[in-house]
Amino acid sequence: MKMITIPAGDFLRGSKVSGNWQEYHDQVLAAGRGELALSDAKGWELDEAPIHRVTISKTFQMSATQVTNAQYEQFDPDHVRSDWNTEDDAAVGNVSWDDAMRYCDWLSQRDGVTCRLPTEAEWEYVCRAGTTTLFHTGDELPDEFIEKDNRRVAQTLPNAWGLHDMHGNVEEWCHDWYGKYPEADVIDPVGRASGLTKVVRGGSDADTLAYLRSGNRTSTVVDFRHERIGFRVVFAELPDTAPLPAESHNWQRDVSQTSHDWSQGPAADEPYFGEILSFGTPPPLDQRPAIPFYATNHCPATAWCPNGDILTIWWSAARDGCRTAVILGARLRAGAKEYDLPSQFFNAADREHCSTSLWHNGRGRLIWLNNLAPQGDWSTAPVMRSFSDDNGVTWEQPKMVLPQVRAGQPAHMVMFRGADGAIYQPADYWITDEEKTGDCGATALYRSRDEGDSWKEVTRIDHQIENLAKDGQTAGAIAGPHGVAVDLKDGSLLGIGRRATIDGNLIFSRSKDGGASWTYSRSPFPKIKFCQRPSMLRLKEGPILFIAYTSELTQPGHSKIAPVPSEAGDVELAVNYQGWTFLDANDQEYTGYGLYAAVSYDEGETWPVRKLITPGGAAKRMFGAGHHHFFKMDETHAEPGGYTYTTQSPDGVIHLINSCLHYRFNLKWIETRPVLQPKPSAF
């Protein structure tokens, strides 16, 4: 292994930040699907601020290239090469941070040296090699770095200090926990004391130029393995610098650990509908560099905590499907009338990780699942999990449990416990094209028999299925993507997704073999489609609750950045174009539009109760964020779209999260028909 001696010195780490959140947001949004193009690379990303001087006080040695397959396999002869890392001199891939650390320990013992991963500061110092430009080659990167057809090392121009492949080829693990940069100049920094992800640097051959910059930061969890992630080594003792404290966020601070008395909740025999709360209140603009609240806030998940709190998490991004997304979190404390301001919950920097699932297992533990894609696409969707046993304050180091969800998106619908005691997680599964299926996807099911520690796919999808929309057909998945499911008392399962229909209505999928196969039938529920996700929940009282929308969503009036309602002015409202028939307290039919609840008392055979989810009263403009921002709410109009997520706390309150709003009601309220005014108020 060729080692290069690196001299002591200093450099300016980070990128210049204007501090103007609106300017930053507009840059990201204009780049297309939220990605930073090369022209934008001359700007910055939030995690690269502030610029500060870093001093590397001692010389050290760093390998001239990334560790190769041949070198790594001396340590691990059973290592499996990927299709793109086949040659002996190709950079090793499919190694986790732990794998890389074990290699360093092995090499240290074999050769009698101190071998380790570089700190993030050492890596950038060496990459720059005295330069201050976007790349060590200047503000342009030669084609040879971008147009490689293999991952062999040392095939590109070295930098001024003789190191190859600092831009691209494969990403490289660093020693540090990922976190915010310090505000002041530092000497020999070693990152944060702890965190949920480790720093990865350099980008890969699959990245756009912006992610190959010397100053760009990426991260992922420690046991993540992918063909595009490898490492190089340093020979030197780790600096004895004290790490920065672990980051702390609003949802973690001053959280009670006292068990809540759930008997003080609303009376079960009295209708209850609480004030509608916003969990996604935008922080003040001057706080947004520290709290990265973007225009699109979407795909929420929520869980009750043993201390009486409600913890809600969701992704926030410039737009759907981008690598600038972060997972935000907000806490509704027991007895509080509003949520704490949101703050960062999780960020695997520059990864696509926009789908999340959160659930309380009824035994004191919160279970959190999240996708974590290699870069910015949904074609593969590895899933990680973590646990919290202290009301969501601290979380176990994430563990990859589903290395790749086949051909689809990750798990982001409500978990549930089956009659067999196992935990089930629905997950999107894009199986064939729309012409063959009548829909572009389905829903798979994953099962855990060890309280969420490990998961296995129970769905068996036949890619030769020609149509998932035939009454009585049996196939290997819940019909339609974004599907939800519940257990039935006879041990079978009932599922329903969006988009897939029989005769214009959504499809019921029923399984009698634990989710391996499903038989389809027409449901009574109208079709929903894009920007909508249903919920289904077994209530503690026994009935099954289903939540969806009366029709597809129309989406007018999108703004560039999500404002608060008072800033909106006159904006066009998002609506449902087609309503559904409901009954009022006088047995009179009326047409309602938007979000509704339906209840079944006979295991999904009939649904005699359905109710529009609105407190009624005079018309008002509501702010839902998500994909629809503003909408009209009155006696006959509810929220028109969004991704619902539902849980029921031990006091019987149903917590419905949708877009950025939190609805609270009980079963008795759903069962109570509304008393409508003779002429519903006009908006």
Subunit organisation of the chains:
single chain
Largest sheet: 5 strands, mixed
CATH architecture group name of the domain at 3-235:
Alpha-Beta Complex
**Strand content range:** 25-35%
Tell me the layout of helices and strands.
Elements: E1 3-6, E2 9-13, H1 21-30, H2 38-41, E3 52-56, E4 60-63, H3 69-75, H4 97-111, E5 115-116, H5 120-128, H6 143-146, E6 171-177, E7 186-187, E8 198-201, E9 218-220, E10 229-230, E11 234-235, E12 277-278, E13 296-304, E14 310-317, E15 326-332, E16 343-346, E17 356-360, E18 366-371, E19 383-388, E20 399-402, E21 416-417, E22 423-429, H7 434-437, E23 442-448, E24 456-457, E25 474-475, E26 478-479, E27 484-487, E28 493-502, E29 505-511, E30 518-526, E31 532-533, E32 535-538, E33 544-549, E34 553-554, E35 575-576, E36 580-583, E37 589-592, E38 595-600, E39 609-612, E40 620-625, E41 629-633, E42 642-648, E43 654-658, E44 661-665, H8 667-671
Please describe what this structure looks like.
This protein is mainly β and 683 residues long. Among the domains are: 3-235, paralog of FGE (formylglycine-generating enzyme) (Alpha-Beta Complex); 539-683, no CATH class. The protein has eight helices and 44 strands. The strands form twelve sheets. It has a five-stranded mixed sheet with strand order 12-44-43-42-31. Strands 21, 22, 23, 24 and 26 form a five-stranded antiparallel sheet that branches. The chain has a five-stranded antiparallel sheet with strand order 25-30-29-28-27, with no helix packed on it. Mean pLDDT is 88; it is low at 32-43, 432-439 and 556-568.
